[in-house]
């Protein structure tokens, strides 16, 4: 099985920000650790579909016929395609939260996470990293982006998302020209008929394995820069962690529960101010 060649990824689960870590690290680190878990789950889903792709018996899910098996495999291929690309997009949020997650020393709340990631795009991320002089992260992001955009994993994902479905052998018929020719001035012409991009399911497994290895290497590079070296060594001590957390965020904690709507509005205003500042920076670089 081609998935046997892949590196274990379950170490990513260890970055879960438990309560002992809440009292030790700033909001941006906790938000990034939380995002690593999102990336981990996307990779697990991608690999599940990839490993299932190598089966020929799917039980009661489909009829055990060549058409039934091919139909199931085309679904597994497309699922793997989506989850690998979801993992890529989530890695952009990793850098984004690292830069902006501790703004105004806000608590790492679900509302802060949601409002921040809504504004994260690849172009916004690169601009934010440039504005904050993070050339180390820019290099990693740009190198992988260049590699990623040249792979079938990203090209086929964009095709599926923006253009339509693929054609797979065994699932219908497809021709590039009409079966009947038209004679014009003594010459026969077969007119072009609409067709979809063809995917050979026998070749995709090796592409996924190569992509997976490069993706995981890229994720590890980001983690090594973003997450403090002592992060995993912090044990889950909820009592001391909560005490430190309270001393840091006591006033915000009261506001979060006693004036919830006002606090949430404060977060939205902070994110809005961040984006205005970033947009001004982007505009200034265009004028140079």
Describe the overall structure.
The mean pLDDT is 87. This protein has a two-stranded parallel sheet. A hairpin with a 2-residue loop joins strand 2 (182-184) and strand 3. It is 63% helix and 3% strand. It has helices spanning 19-22, 27-53, 66-100, 110-117, 122-131, 135-149, 152-162, 204-226, 238-258, 260-287, and strands spanning 167-168, 182-184, 187-189, 198-199. It contains ten helices and four strands; from the N terminus they run H-H-H-H-H-H-H-E-E-E-E-H-H-H. The longest helix has 35 residues, at 66-100. The protein is elongated. With 288 residues, the chain is mostly helical. Helix 3 crosses helix 7 and helix 3 (66-100) runs parallel beside helix 8.
Task: Considering the chains and any ligands shown, give keywords for the structure.
4 strands; two-stranded antiparallel sheet; 288 residues; two-stranded parallel sheet; mainly alpha; elongated; 10 helices
């Amino acid at each position: 099985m081609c998935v046997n060649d892949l590196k274990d990824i379950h170490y990513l689960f260890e970055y879960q920000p438990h309560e002992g870590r809440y009292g030790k690290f700033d909001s941006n680190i906790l938000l990034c650790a939380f995002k690593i878990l999102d990336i981990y789950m996307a990779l697990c889903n991608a690999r599940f579909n990839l490993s299932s792709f190598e089966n020929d018996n799917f039980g009661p899910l489909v009829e055990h016929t060549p058409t039934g098996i091919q139909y199931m495999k085309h679904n597994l291929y497309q699922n793997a395609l989506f989850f690998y690309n979801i993992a890529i997009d989530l890695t952009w949020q990793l850098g984004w939260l690292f830069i902006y997650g501790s703004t105004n020393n806000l608590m790492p709340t679900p509302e802060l996470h949601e409002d921040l990631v809504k504004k994260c795009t690849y172009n916004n991320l690169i601009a934010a990293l440039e504005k904050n002089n993070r050339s180390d992260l820019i290099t990693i992001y740009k190198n992988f982006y260049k590699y990623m955009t040249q792979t079938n994993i990203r090209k086929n994902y964009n095709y599926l998302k923006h253009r339509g479905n693929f054609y797979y052998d065994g699932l219908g018929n497809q021709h590039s020209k009409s079966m009947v020719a038209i004679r014009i001035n003594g010459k026969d012409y077969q007119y072009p008929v609409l067709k979809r991009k063809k995917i050979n399911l026998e070749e995709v497994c090796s592409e996924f394995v190569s992509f997976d290895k490069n993706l995981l290497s890229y994720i590890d590079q980001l983690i090594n820069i973003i997450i403090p070296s002592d992060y995993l060594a912090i044990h889950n001590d909820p009592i001391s962690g909560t005490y430190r957390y309270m001393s840091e965020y006591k006033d915000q904690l009261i506001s979060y529960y006693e004036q919830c709507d006002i606090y949430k509005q404060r977060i939205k205003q902070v994110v809005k101010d961040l984006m205005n500042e970033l947009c001004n920076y982007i505009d200034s670089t265009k004028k140079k």
